Amino acid sequence: MAACPHTLSSRLLTGWVGGCVWYLERRTVHQSPHTFMHILRNVNKQWITFQHFNFLKRMYVTQLNRSLSQQVKPKPEPVASPFLENTSSGQAREEVDEMRSLSPPSLLSSQRPNTKELMELASVPIVEGAVDVGKEAKEEKQWKEMKIQVDDLPGILARLSKIKLTALVVSTTSAGFALAPAPFDWPCFLLTSLGTGLASCAANSINQFFEVPFDSNMNRTKNRPLVRGQISPLLAVSFATCCAVPGVALLTWGVNPLTGALGIFNIFLYTCCYTPLKRISIANTWVGAVVGAIPPVMGWTAATGSLDAGALLLGGILYSWQFPHFNALSWGLREDYSRGGYCMMSVTHPSLCRRVALRHCLALIALSTAAPILDVTTWAFPVISLPINLYISYLGLRFYVDADRKSSRRLFFCSLWHLPLLLLLLLTCKRRPGGDLQGAAPS
Ligand code: HEM
Ligand SMILES: CC(C)=CCC/C(C)=C/CC/C(C)=C/COP(=O)(O)OP(=O)(O)O
């Protein structure tokens, strides 16, 4: 029966190794018989077969990798991305290549054993298990899976869910619930907040699952759990499913079907519309602003069961707030976003980016003034909210005029406290159900 190519090649390789040993023996025979006898005695004791040589090579690589990973203490920031791992394995590959060049010196053509001798050597039976390989060494040969430390899992899942963003999203939902003209129902409030938070965690996890190849190219996102391989895609998607299903179920059956429908629609809008659109058109920011505007509307519908003018006003405030928030942020990330291959206004339409941010800062003043007109708040609200709305508009103007890193960062960080404060003022000036004023100036 013809030998399979694998057997043939391993026999030839064995023959080649045997040939080298043969060459060494011949050379030492002529040079120093005593040394030769010593080597011969040793060589006989540990006849190095092809397997042993190969096993030693693998052991060496494993040891090398282990020593490499032991030497490199992962820093919290920045941590090697898979590409760096490839480089280190590339280094390992270099070492192996070098190690391969340490194999017995190449034979001079004149002394190379002739084919007959190689075939004779090839016929030497390969002794399986010539070396006693301990259990531990056997395990060394297996590739090691990246094991998640259970204590790290909460932090990893928090980063996967963009927990700070989710926290502010849930606070806008709570504000919508509290602002709605309906009696405050605590169980319903808690179910709405929990359901929205779970839906947001699911949406952000799926968003990161889709964006791994692009996030790995951006400094801001290259240390995310999926990019760093801290968590498997399967676990990330399973986590997203375990958040989405109970989240939407809580909103639909624990609160009302309208709120549940808004929740699942928002997950779809964020993961299947906004996320792919980021790489296609600058319109992604307008779609993303709708995604961010829906959570407070969900809070309102959870409390009232209906979608009315007040809900749309609140959604409008969140919609406008996101333009200074994101356009300012993205200004400082233009190189990063272009490296990631995203279509962002700050990269392709810089003047539009600044203009839209300023326009929506001013829109916040208009929307705040509309609140008492739509009976959402008292007339105290547009007055007491004017200072913070004027301040964010001033920063928006600075960003429009200066168009530099400093003005963009000031506007972004202002947006992070402006929204919670504006929501607080909305609550303090809420108009009570039945029309009587709460927090109104004394008549
Ligand atoms: C068009 C919509 C939005 C876009 C494009 C956007 C984009 C971003 C980006 C890129 C960051 C930086 C995250 C990072 O450092 O990796 C960020 C931070 C943040 N965003 Fe937004 N965002 C939007 C809407 C919202 C909404 C609706 C909220 C909450 C209501 C929000 C809350 C936050 C918070 C709290 C941070 C700071 C916390 C953090 O650094 O993760 N954002 N946003
Ligand atoms: C109920 C429910 C589903 C709520 C979802 C609310 C939510 C996740 C809003 C985020 C809005 C948004 C566009 C964020 C930026 O994402 P990005 O992908 O541009 O951010 P990145 O670049 O940091 O990944």
Please describe what this structure looks like.
InterPro entries: Protohaem_IX_farnesylTrfase (IPR006369), Protohaem_IX_farnesylTrfase_mt (IPR016315), UbiA_prenyltransferase (IPR000537), UbiA_prenylTrfase_CS (IPR030470), UbiA_sf (IPR044878). By secondary structure, this protein is an all-alpha fold. Among the domains are: 161-304, Tetracycline Repressor, domain 2; 308-431, Four Helix Bundle (Hemerythrin (Met), subunit A), CATH 1.20.120. The protein has 21 helices and no strands. The chain has helices spanning 5-31, 33-45, 50-71, 82-101, 115-122, 135-141, 153-160, 163-179, 186-210, 212-215, 225-228, 233-255, 257-277, 284-304, 309-331, 334-340, 345-348, 350-373, 380-384, 386-402, 405-428. α8 (163-179) packs across α14 (284-304) and α20 packs antiparallel against α21 (405-428). It is globular and about 80 Å long. The protein starts with a helix and ends in a 15-residue tail after the last helix. It binds protoporphyrin IX containing FE and farnesyl diphosphate. Protoporphyrin IX containing FE binds at residues 162, 164-165, 168-169, 172, 220, 285, 288-289, 292, 322, 325-326, 329, 416.
